[in-house]
Amino acid sequence: MSSPALEVVEFLLTAHIYTENRELDENDLPPRYRRVFWAERDSDAPDSASGEVEPLGGVERPLSVTETDARTATGVEHPWEAISDLLFTDRTEFSGTLSFTQPEMALEWFLARADRDRLVTNPTIAFAAEDRDDVDVTHEEAREQNRPIHADRVWIDSLLKAYFDDDEDGDAEMLDLVHVRAPEEIEMTLEDLVLTADQEGEIAKIVKAIEHRDYLAEIGLREIGKLLFVGPPGTGKTTISRALAHELGLPFVEVKLSMITSQYLGETAKNVEKTFEVAKRLSPCILFIDEFDSVAKTRRSDEHAALKRAVNTLLKSIDDISLIRDDVLLIGATNHPDQLDAAAWRRFDEIVNFPKPDRQMRADILRVITQRMEIAEFDPESVADRTEGLTGSDLRMVLREAVLEALTEERMSLTQEDVLDAVEDFEERDNLKNMDMMDGDSDSLIAGNGESPDTSDHSHDHDHAHDHQH
Question: Which one, 195, 281, 342, 415, has least CB within 10 Å?
């Protein structure tokens, strides 16, 4: 059971114990506290002895806690009021610093009120309490469950700043091409997704491979951890990749190859190299390469020389990166597998299919999307019958339209009819897009067997799919 006093005392205890025990490091601090104590260092600070770029920041002792720090870390609006009546607390009026007069009493008070679930999320306090008979949480267990420092936004930003500040070529604009997400910034989880059996199996295998990297290295199995996700827009390629990063607590490095080729054509090959270098710096991480076909397409004799160099650089970079050696899981995604040549296919050890959802998957997706909606007499199966050919992303748009239509009538509850009307409206809009394409590119429409051509606007693909947040 939580309380404002318990929250503030835990924060103060963590700061005190961490300051007193030099054998503890940043990975012993809960992420919500690390953010508060993270301090930027001088950008002229030397790199590590190994020559690797070090983050321009860290958690430096001693840790002093102000009321502002406590408010930020705990969410308690008035921290001192929450603990002022406890016998072991003190406050310095001038600086607003909070502290303990009797740290041992504070630890006793906290352990008497904290449950196991709370203790196992705080390796620092677990370290101080693990020898007690009344505590069944070890320091090692808590540390294993604590998200490591390399997954924190502050660490990611600090390392990237150090890397590019140290970069003599002045390639900081690469950060405009590479989008790095911390696991804490990814809201969806694998439990929020509707997956095919094939997708579930591949994810289970890769999770095991990451858990047992040392074993795989011992037996010489190093060519693993390079996946290619193949399927039409809106089927969840990006979303599942992000959810996997959240699940594994890994930074997610996302790059669209079309951006690299279109904005800096003359330096495409160098930008490809830089992308892989960023991933290695942030490892362990997931490197997600979207629109993979935009560079690794079938090479033609009249292709631009810069693109030819980029293709060769990309294939070589894929060869050189390894989950086992570099701690980088590589995921490529393409809507156009027909544009990949044999050299590109060979680089991936697993190909994962992302088809449009069948009837049962559409019904399951609808259930997930609508979990927090009020819909009278909602029948997902009948809606699934009416939405053949729609992707998870399309279904999200259908429900969005139904909600907005209801709001225009000042309603925050829906009916089955609202949903079916939204399906009909979506189909009409989709037909209009097809008609527009027929004016300029009728061949692509015919080749698609009546479906929306690949060039239609699917910019929302990466935000939705067979995948929806609760």
Answer: 342
- The 10s digit of each residue's pLDDT in 437-447 is 444 443 433 33
* Count, residues in the chain: 470
What is d(CA 125, CA 11) in angstroms, rounded to the nearest whole number?
A: 10
With CA atoms as reference, report the closest residue to 142 among 1, 14, 285. 14
Q: Which amino acid is at 67?
A: E
| Helical segments of 448-463, H only | none
Describe the strand order of the beta sheet including 97-100 as a list of residue ranges. Answer: 65-66, 97-100, 89-92
pLDDT tens, residue by residue, 255-295:
987 776 665 556 777 888 888 999 999 999 999 999 898 87
Give the span between the Cα atoms of 232 and 459, in whole angstroms. Answer: 12
Kind plus residue range of the DSSP H or E element containing 73: helix 67-74
Query: What is residue 200's three-state secondary structure?
Result: helix
pLDDT at 311: 83
118 has pLDDT over 60: yes
How is domain 359-447 classified at the CATH fold level? Answer: Helicase, Ruva Protein; domain 3 (1.10.8)
CA atoms lying within 13 Å on the CB side of residue 335? 22
pLDDT at residue 173 in the model: 65
Sign, CA dihedral 464-205-361-428, equals positive
**172 or 204, which is more confident?**
204
pLDDT at 47: 52
Q: Are 37 and 63 in contact (CB under 8 A)?
A: yes
Predicted pLDDT of residue 168: 56
| DSSP states of 153-191 | HHHHHHHHHHHHHT-TT--GGGGGTEEEE-GGG----GG
Q: Can you name the CATH fold of 167-353?
A: Rossmann fold (3.40.50)
DSSP H or E segment with residue 89: strand 89-92
Q: What is the mean pLDDT of the chain?
A: 85
The CA angle 295-182-281, to the nearest 5 degrees, is: 60
CB atoms within 10 A of CB 68: 11
Nearest to 405, CA basis, from 387, 396, 418? 418
pLDDT band at 239 (very low <50, low <70, confident <90, very high): very high
Reduce the secondary structure of 316-334 to three states and give it as a string: HHHHHCCHHHHCEEEEEEE
In the chain, CATH 1.10.8.60 sits at: 359-447
